[in-house]
Amino acid sequence: MSERKSAICHSESPINRGEESLNSIFTIKRFLAPHRNDNVGYFTFRHYEENKMNKVLYLIMLCFIISSCVHDIPTEKDGSFIYSAVIIDTLGIFPVDASLGYAPFKNRSVTIESNSYFESMGNSKKYYLVTDNSGRITIDNLAYSGYLLYSEFVDTLKADSTGAPDTVNVGALKAVELTKNISTNDTIYTSTVLPNLVVNEIYYAGPINKAFYFFDQFVELYNASNETKYLDGLIVARARQSLNPDLETNDFVQVLNTNQFPGTPLTGREYPVEPGEFVLIAGDALDHSQYIETALDLSHAGWEFYNPYCGEEDNPANNVTNIIESRTIDFMLNLVENAIVLADGSEWEYGEFSESGYTQFIHIPINTVIDAVDYSCNSEGTKEFTRRLDAGYAGVGLSKYSGKSVERRIPGFDTNNSRVDFINLDVPTPGY
Ligand SMILES: [Ca+2]
Ligand SMILES: [Ca+2]
Ligand SMILES: [Ca+2]
Ligand SMILES: [Ca+2]
User: Fold this and answer.
1) Which of 3, 14, 29, 99, by CA, is between 20 and 30 Å from 419?
2) What's the CA-to-centroid distance between 282 and ligand 4, angstroms?
3) How many A from CA of 311 to the centre of ligand 2?
């Protein structure tokens, strides 16, 4: 942050100037206060005339000083970086331009999002650009920051073998750190956002309330592929990797709560999810607004997390059931920082015990993971998943008991970077 400090130092120092003005005002206030002759206790005529003249002069000075107290808008910025990039299509959406020698990703909107400047709580500073005919974007006067650059684009790519159009999400992504070079010239290649069954929304923060009520939590899945998927035997788990923080080398995810859909993993066909269909899993599938007015009505949820070992109520919704007998609390999410993993359920094993020796963790092999989403209110928070599963966080800036949730910006939009893929929602959308 040294650049930032020096930028402030080089600019006018309104703080010092303000102090000087304040001292001057105190001096004038002292002068304008009743000016007594200490010996006689009253003003002489001469004193009065002098005072009158001086008061006029000092009033003029006061006006000048007060006007100089109004801070000028700073003109010096916190850096003035130039960023330019050419986005090249590698997916056959755009034709190769013979004169350029590549297929420009042209006339597409591109967002550049700062990871340290915010428009408001939870809303990063964003710049919206459009690529030109050569696929180029250029922006100048950017402040010192890390940025995420992305383009979201949904298109009919090409006909598949059945002749049906194959719709894909296309992303152009790049994380840029503007801290050293004044001018950066990048090349970015488009990539497909693989359509799959994904964790689409997580509502963990709890409703606005003063009773610490957060039991209306839910996890929403979405089938972004163009084929029927099956819930049979899938595991939904809450990760807790920090005890085994060697994320990039572990081939498993360490989890705390482990709940499983009924049916046989991989081969079961009892619980289909059609393309474009949502699956709502409530913490408890009931109308929570009967307890807290601002809480959600989840009585319509198709599924609920259910733990037979904690004596909780079994509502009519189907159960995604806790499979670890020693785990005697219900599936609840941390209100500010946690991680959800969806796995095919074909493999898991008992892992290490917690520091207290009370809880035994479960290991889920990464090669069985279908989707994983890390969330944290703090962009510097503890990372729970390897970059192979999720390179970022959802929910930066989202407060507990805010009634807000995190959802993919387009249903199913998944680039394995939740910082890019998710947005904070003011109002949760359970099941849609
Ligand atoms: Ca429950
Ligand atoms: Ca139930
Ligand atoms: Ca993913
Ligand atoms: Ca939703």
Assistant:
1) 3
2) 12
3) 12
What's 137's DSSP letter? E
Collapsing DSSP to helix, strand or coil, 161 comes out as coil
- Ligand 3 centroid to residue 4 C-alpha, Å: 35
Distance between Cα 296 and ligand 2 center (Å): 17
Cβ 431 vs Cβ 300: under 8 Å = yes
Q: Which residues, other chains included, contact 236 with Cβ-Cβ below 8 Å and sequence gap of 6+?
A: 219, 259, 260, 261, 281, 305, 320, 331, 340, 341, 342
Rounded to an integer, the average pLDDT of 192-212 is 90
| CA 307 to ligand 1 center in whole angstroms | 6
**For the CA of 198, the nearest ligand:** 3
Q: What is the pLDDT of residues 252-270, one digit of tens each?
A: 999 989 999 999 999 999 9
pLDDT of 175: 66
What is the per-residue DSSP string for 316-363? SSEEEEE--TT--S-----SSEEEEEEE-SS--EEEEEPTTSS-EEEE
Residues whose CB is less than 8 angstroms from the CB of residue 81 and which lie 6 or more positions away in sequence, other chains included: 140, 141, 142, 143, 144, 178, 181, 182, 183, 184
Ligand 1 centroid to Cα of residue 311, in Å, is: 10
> Residue 133, by phi and psi: left (phi above 0), alpha (psi -120 to 50) or beta?
alpha
CA 371 – ligand 1 centroid, Å: 22
| DSSP track, 60-127 | HHHHHHHHHHSPPPP---S--EEEEEEEE--SSSS--BTTTTB-B-TT-EEEEEEEEEEEETTEEEEE
Ligand 1 centroid to 204 CA: how many Å?
Answer: 14
Find which of 65-79, 192-206, 310-324 is predicted with most confidence, using mean pLDDT. 310-324
pTM passes above 0.70 = no
Ligand 2 centroid from CA 314, angstroms = 4
Tens of pLDDT, residues 46-69: 444 555 666 666 666 655 555 555
Q: Which ligand is closest to the CA of 219, given by its number?
A: 4
Tell me which residues have their CB within 5 A of the ion that is ligand 3: 371, 414, 416
Alpha-carbon gap, residue 428 to 263, rounded angstroms: 29
Cα 296 to averaged position of ligand 1 atoms, centre (Å): 14
Relative to the alpha carbon of 408, which ligand is closest?
Answer: 4
Q: Is 187 exposed, middle or buried, given 0-12, 13-18 or 19+ CB atoms closer than 10 A?
A: exposed
Phi, psi dihedrals of residue 250, rounded to the nearest 5°: -70, 140
